[in-house]
């Protein structure tokens, strides 16, 4: 069990290390930066309230990502979220080629978008993604392969070229 100072330091360290990654994951679900930041704040509030104990930093990161995914899914289920018309995010600050790829990734169905984001942008292995998404690794591999094919059709590429995000 943490004392107050240890808990604050633990949250501060996690915020520094993982907040940007959590925002990106939530953004992949919600497609809105403000909502993604809100979900990330909720995750850290949950961290403070529940005071979970972790075996190591990887366990902590996995807990934060899983909680981010769950809270993002919960937000998508709310009546308010379903009834609004989201404003597309302005990604003009990105280089044109990167913007095109990110737009194509964000346009994918959630079951392809999230594994592709975790694999290419966050650097997780297929097994780690399977654990995070509570799926089988073969299923995650299939989602990645299908997502890559869809992206290849959308953004083009050479016949034998592997998509590099």
TrEMBL record:
<dbReference type="InterPro" id="IPR013249">
    <property type="entry name" value="RNA_pol_sigma70_r4_t2"/>
</dbReference>
<keyword id="KW-0805">Transcription regulation</keyword>
<dbReference type="Pfam" id="PF08281">
    <property type="entry name" value="Sigma70_r4_2"/>
</dbReference>
<keyword id="KW-0731">Sigma factor</keyword>
<dbReference type="InterPro" id="IPR013324">
    <property type="entry name" value="RNA_pol_sigma_r3/r4-like"/>
</dbReference>
<comment type="similarity">
    <text>Belongs to the sigma-70 factor family. ECF subfamily.</text>
</comment>
<dbReference type="InterPro" id="IPR014284">
    <property type="entry name" value="RNA_pol_sigma-70_dom"/>
</dbReference>
<dbReference type="InterPro" id="IPR013325">
    <property type="entry name" value="RNA_pol_sigma_r2"/>
</dbReference>
<dbReference type="InterPro" id="IPR036388">
    <property type="entry name" value="WH-like_DNA-bd_sf"/>
</dbReference>
<protein>
    <submittedName>
        <fullName>Sigma-70 family RNA polymerase sigma factor</fullName>
    </submittedName>
</protein>
<feature type="domain" description="RNA polymerase sigma-70 region 2">
    <location>
        <begin position="18"/>
        <end position="78"/>
    </location>
</feature>
<keyword id="KW-0804">Transcription</keyword>
<feature type="domain" description="RNA polymerase sigma factor 70 region 4 type 2">
    <location>
        <begin position="99"/>
        <end position="149"/>
    </location>
</feature>
<dbReference type="Pfam" id="PF04542">
    <property type="entry name" value="Sigma70_r2"/>
</dbReference>
<dbReference type="InterPro" id="IPR007627">
    <property type="entry name" value="RNA_pol_sigma70_r2"/>
</dbReference>
<dbReference type="InterPro" id="IPR039425">
    <property type="entry name" value="RNA_pol_sigma-70-like"/>
</dbReference>
């Amino acid at each position: 069990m943490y004392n107050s100072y240890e808990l604050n330091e633990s949250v501060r360290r996690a915020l520094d290390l993982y907040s940007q990654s959590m925002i990106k994951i939530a953004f992949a679900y919600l497609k809105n930066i403000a909502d993604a930041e809100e979900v990330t704040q909720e995750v850290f509030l949950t961290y403070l309230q529940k005071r979970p104990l972790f075996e190591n930093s990887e366990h902590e990161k996995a807990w934060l990502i899983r909680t981010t995914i769950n809270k993002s899914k919960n937000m998508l289920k709310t009546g308010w979220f379903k009834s609004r018309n989201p404003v597309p995010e302005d990604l003009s600050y990105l280089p044109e080629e990167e913007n095109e790829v990110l737009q194509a990734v964000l346009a994918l169905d959630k079951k392809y978008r999230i594994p592709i984001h975790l694999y290419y942008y966050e650097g997780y292995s297929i097994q780690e993604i399977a654990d995070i998404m509570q799926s089988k690794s073969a299923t995650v591999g299939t989602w990645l392969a299908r997502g890559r094919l869809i992206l290849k059709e959308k953004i083009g590429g050479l016949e034998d070229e592997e998509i590099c995000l």
